[in-house]
Amino acid sequence: MDTETTTDTEPMVDAEEALFSSLDLFLFSLIAGLVIYWFMSRKKPEPIPEFKKLDTPAPTTRETSFIEKMKKTGKNIIVFYGSQTGTAEEFANRLSKDAQRYGMKGMAADPEEYDMGEMSRLSEIKNSLAIFCMATYGEGDPTDNAQDFYDWLQENEDEDLSGLNYTVFALGNKTYEHYNAMGKYVDKRLEELGAKRIFDLGLGDDDSNLEEDFVSWREQFWPAVCEHFGVEPLGDESSIRQYELKEHTDVNMNKVYTGEIGRLKSFEVQKPPFDSKNPFLAPVIVNRRLNKGGDRHLMHLELDITGSKIRYESGDHVAVFPTNDSALVTKLGQILGVDLDVVISLNNLDEESNKKHPFPCPTTYRTALTHYLDITHPPRTNVLYELAQYASDPKDQENMRKMASSSPEGKALYQSWVLDSCRNILAILEDMPSLRPPIDHLCELLPRLQARYYSIASSSKVHPNSIHICAVVVEYETKTGRINKGVATNWLKNKLVTDNGHKSTVPMYVRKSQFRLPFKPTNPVIMIGPGTGIAPFIGFIQERGWLKQQGKEVGETVMYFGCRHKNEDYIYQEELEEAGEKGVVTKLHIAFSRDQEQKVYVQHHLKKTKEDVWKLIHTDNAHIYVCGDARNMAKDVQTAFHEIAEELGGMTRTQATDYIKKLMTKGRYSQDVWS
């Protein structure tokens, strides 16, 4: 028995031993394999970040380091611009070109494209200077492209800018509450961070004469720069070209821009998101006249945004990209004796510049003058100065140079002959037969045609797939007997729903606004908007009506509207009266300014209802909204509120002014105004 057992068990032990050793081998191989795999997989990603590290610095340095770019190109002056409508950018370009006349080299720069944290490194460049041309937008806000720079200035408390030489020219409008707020802030903040101001802050007022303010400041600024750096002007007053012309004789027409703002063919193949560089082509679905009579044309347009993924809120702005009147463009071509359909490129002579062309190229002169260049505004003095060389009559040359100077006589001549007479470039060429500049230089000098902003006259709660515009068509006779027409409003007027069987479209995008209804619908609102200033309030009323339909409690909604005559330009009368009947608008006050001997305006109605107004503001936490003309109406309305606070709040004028200012700070007094 034992023997049997012994005999039977021995082979089992052998088998077991064999099994364990192969298992050991298997486990060892498995562990070794896992270790190798882990080691390899751990090591594997390393080349990728390493590769990225090697690959990206060059473009990053080239794209965001203005210091490296300045060193590479031998520049010592950089002009940053905060620009919404293109004027600050234009001034920056002029200052960067000026530098050459003083033996220096300048570059204009968009702060959005560069790392502004590098400003402390500017001392690495000999005789370096940063100039800031900063426009103020809306209620004292930075322009879109300067928002990040503004945030950087606010957030970086410990930044040391002691090696930075700087100066600031601010662009603003005195009719606005926060006149030149952005320029003043940049000037003050840079000094706080240790930078050295080498010339006084310049203040440009667009309500008066922005060009004159800039020219006067610039004339004093450059001698101060020369004195600071110990340099002498070169005395070279000749024209300096920034771009060179290239005519294309053999070009694929699919590669030619035909009016697109950014990407080539972006109007044929539309891709969201839509913004200032990629507008959406919105079909016009309604275009009707609003007023019943009178010699003006007030219009209501509806743009279809179905499928665009564009979202908007009541109070936002819609930006549209207009085109110039084709008759004006054709006349310009005729007077200069050129074929407007030649395909051209204007290429920057500075190959390192971020701005390769003044407008999308290649394109035709016709497209440039129709879509990209502003040919209807009176040209600025620098344009006259540069064009003067092409006048064959010495008297014309002298007058053009005089108008571009800062002499009192020159300023007066520019004011009367150009500004007061509303002469655009075509009128100047017509009235100065000896002036016949080459068209490519003219195209280089003319400013870019800008988008126009309109307060949206609808609520996305009621109209999620359309955006409504309310505007008055601009048309007037100048002192020279010419009829001048507003570019955008006349272009919009002619945007018929169907044009020769095709849908009319408008390139557009939405710009967000701070002009917002209160967060709590129970808060009362007081809306003051004469004329087309009613636009955002149509959206507000629609939204309050929608909230009521949802069963929400809605506070008092008081509307003050003004127009000239009840039977002529009482726009949106049906909508307002229907909102009144439904209790959406709880009180409606209309000022018909010219239906009686004494003119009556919205501010008069405010004072007439002062007890109600004061109770709403002081007791019921009402929000005040003012939309329309900044120069007169908005000021008069504010004065009316000061007087109500004085009279019914028992305040002095100073206290009343502070009281209204506090409402503004708290976001309870909002303005959407223009001049």
Automatic annotation (TrEMBL):
Please name the CDD domains in this protein's record.
CYPOR
One GO molecular-function entry = NADPH-hemoprotein reductase activity
Annotated positions binding FMN: 83-88, 135-138, 171-180, 206
Flavodoxin-like domain location: 77-222
* UniProt record, GO biological process: response to hormone
What cofactor(s) does the depicted protein rely on?
A: FAD; FMN
Q: What does this protein do?
A: This enzyme is required for electron transfer from NADP to cytochrome P450 in microsomes. It can also provide electron transfer to heme oxygenase and cytochrome B5.
Entry's family note: In the C-terminal section; belongs to the flavoprotein pyridine nucleotide cytochrome reductase family. In the N-terminal section; belongs to the flavodoxin family.
Query: What name is this protein filed under?
Result: NADPH--cytochrome P450 reductase
Species name: Parambassis ranga (Indian glassy fish)
